[in-house]
Design a protein that fits this description.
alpha/beta; Rossmann fold; seven-stranded mixed β-sheet; five-stranded parallel β-sheet; 17 strands; globular
């Protein structure tokens, strides 16, 4: 790629910000635009009016097995070591989740060792020769009772669909354990940005070759007099093409933040799932995540919705078929790179977005 090109990056989340920094580092002039009034995308955090650091768009817990990606982000943040733990509420009682040996012993009043837990799962599971759906995954692993207690109604709330209507990958993300490990993630690197995500993104975007324009629609920039040699687009791919083939389905979220002035802690762990009760799916208490010390606390409840900002691509075969129509167009673009969860219609974790962005930059720089 020729030196000192003008590059437009649409979106100031992980994908856009990492691309911006890497392209700026090798001399390109980069304009980053975002329709929101802040960078950091859905990872954006800030101190609420009571001084508690909260995640505006729900909990974002960083974890990765990639030393390369952890070291990359370490250039822009210090870390607070944190291992996320989750509980699931069934019939008014909290149990470790993902399901482990303690879950079985507490739920069924048993005293299983590791082999006993493995034997229990083998006894109750409903084997599936072909594992096509999320229902297949869970029934094949833990059987019907645990499926109905922990997964069925949570999935219905989260996705607005029955697990039998979702691809297997959704449930495959959640492990089942015969030991007593109650960490939600088992990745090698688990930590939170010490001063928050917003500060980390400020550091990422702090480069003389990077200009950031917030509260800006990218098509307004395209229609301006500025010219760009290349575009990195991280928004919804169907929006880029003005929904030519129709809207890609996304699941959205509504967040209900609450501050509790008269108590230091609200719950025992970072996140508590409510699979069978209430309209919300889970409650997160931010002080667990950040290590912040305070005599009061702030929580957020998450309500999945069909309308609103796109958060999760809905993993169904018909949606993949529609996405591929847009991807055919995207693959023909010589001056546009599509990267990120919305642009690639993929459920990426944060570290996966960073990896995808670094790979996208490599391909951009390879072009002559």
């Amino acid at each position: 790629m020729e030196s000192m090109q003008n590059i437009l990056i649409v979106g100031a989340g992980f994908a856009g910000s990492v691309c911006a920094r890497e392209l700026a580092e090798v001399g390109h002039k980069v304009l980053v635009v975002d329709r929101r009034d802040h960078s950091a995308g859905n990872a954006f955090d800030l101190k609420d009016e009571h001084g508690i650091l909260i995640h505006q768009y729900g909990p974002h817990i960083f974890h990765t097995n990639s030393e390369r990606i952890f070291n990359y982000l370490s250039k822009y943040t210090e870390w607070y070591q944190y291992e996320h733990r989750v509980r699931g509420v069934v019939d008014g009682k909290e149990y470790p989740f993902p399901i482990n040996r303690d879950t079985l012993n507490q739920l069924y009043s048993l005293d299983l060792d590791e082999k006993g837990a493995a034997d229990f799962f083998e006894k109750v599971r409903e084997p599936r020769e072909l594992v096509k759906t999320s229902e297949d995954v869970v029934l094949n692993s833990v059987g019907r009772d645990l499926y109905e207690k922990f997964f069925l109604n949570y999935t219905k709330k989260q996705w607005g669909l029955d697990p039998s209507q979702l691809k297997a990958g959704v449930a495959a993300r959640i492990p089942t354990r015969t030991n007593t490990n109650d960490r939600y993630f088992t990745d090698t690197f688990q930590a939170m940005p010490l001063h928050g995500y917003a500060v980390m993104f400020e550091n990422l975007l702090n480069h003389p070759n990077i200009e950031v324009q917030l509260s800006t629609e990218f098509k307004d920039v395209l229609n301006s007099s500025r010219e760009f040699d290349h575009i990195v687009y991280t928004g919804p791919i169907d929006a880029f093409y003005d929904f030519k083939f129709g809207h890609l389905p996304y699941r959205s979220l509504r967040f209900e933040h609450e501050h509790l002035a008269d108590q230091e802690w609200y719950q025992s762990v970072g996140t508590v799932n409510y699979p069978n009760d209430f309209e919300f799916t889970r409650i997160t208490e931010f002080k667990h995540l950040t290590g912040q010390q305070a005599t009061s606390t702030s929580i957020v409840r998450e309500y999945p919705t069909a309308e609103g900002d796109p958060y999760y691509p809905i993993p169904r075969d018909e949606n993949e078929i529609l996405f591929k129509k847009y991807k055919v167009l995207a693959d023909q673009e010589e001056r546009v790179t599509f990267v990120g969860r919305l642009a690639e219609y993929r459920y990426y974790n944060m570290d996966q977005v960073v990896g995808a962005a670094l790979n996208a930059v490599d391909k951009i720089l390879e072009r002559k």
